[in-house]
Amino acid sequence: MPARLTPALDQLVKCLTYLPGVGPKSATRMALHLLEREQNKGAELAIALSEALTKVGRCQRCNNFSESDLCSICKDTRREEGLLCVVEATTDVIAIEQTAAFRGRYFVLKGHLSPLDGIGPKEIGIDLLKEIMEKQTVKELILATSATVEGEATAHFIGELAQSRNIKVSRLAQGIPMGGELGLLDSGTLSHALEDRKFLFADSGN
Amino acid sequence: MPARLTPALDQLVKCLTYLPGVGPKSATRMALHLLEREQNKGAELAIALSEALTKVGRCQRCNNFSESDLCSICKDTRREEGLLCVVEATTDVIAIEQTAAFRGRYFVLKGHLSPLDGIGPKEIGIDLLKEIMEKQTVKELILATSATVEGEATAHFIGELAQSRNIKVSRLAQGIPMGGELGLLDSGTLSHALEDRKFLFADSGN
Questions:
Q1: Distance in Å, alpha carbon of A196 to nearest chain B alpha carbon
Q2: Based on CB atoms within 10 Å of each CB, which residue in A2, A145, A174, B67 is the most buried?
């Protein structure tokens, strides 16, 4: 239960709890911090928030955040046109971009298939993805959905669509994460890692 | 290092890190959360923040946050006029109000004395406190500054001012916090608790 301050402060505290991971206590601390010490920064935040809400929309090609019709990645001609990475959310694009290991383009789904919640292919934007597969020169589709039941189901569904259009399909490798200790891993991860083991010398697998 | 998004989003992420306890990673998560799922709540937050910055000022009597000349506590005639609790910040007023154990009024200092940083009596608003002690009918001054070196020094300084004006002065009790286990307490707290021990029967102290 947060303390009662002035009406405008109470409203600010309430609105700050809309932020993920912020409860009434931190919201109160944030509100008082801005008002007591950082009035200018508070004003800057209010403006930045309004601006972002007005300016930021979706890229018409990949559905990523963008301030123009096409996002910076789709506009970048140095990106490989034929390599398309399908992810569940914008945060996944950010994560992959930070590895700097991918030079293709993206397609951002609106989440994953979840038939029980009434979320089918149409709801997550697979129609647009189909158009892209048909019109554009996609050679390989990398399915980078989550390693959850819904993520796997979504990958499977899109994989079949791609295969029927003669597009190569791949899925992110599953295995032991970097720094992972075997004793602490769940058996699902470990059995995946065993199954997909990588032979170290070209001829040892034969 | 936060990921590069669109310019407006980058700016929003930067401004969100102004909030206490929010780093670039949480700021990115907050920004994407608001834009992806909670556009309306985001707009509400931007408005609440601007409004609070415009409307909320200081109570002219106690220096607490207020949207009018006097704050709700100073306006409340049921509050004991003669009992004044001196605290270092607005958050302390909130903490004490939540106990519902205090029915007097407050005076909010602007922090504590810190001569090395050039913060003297004037900077933390002791001039206004002096005026109150002279003009108004304060009978007891409760020094509720922090139990830190600076808090103690501030309490000592104000205590002397009050004593020279024949006002009763008290300081919050120091001792074992509720639920505190002796083995885990620092020796400073424990020696305070020992020194200020409370005799349980009226005559056992004699």
A1: 31
A2: A145
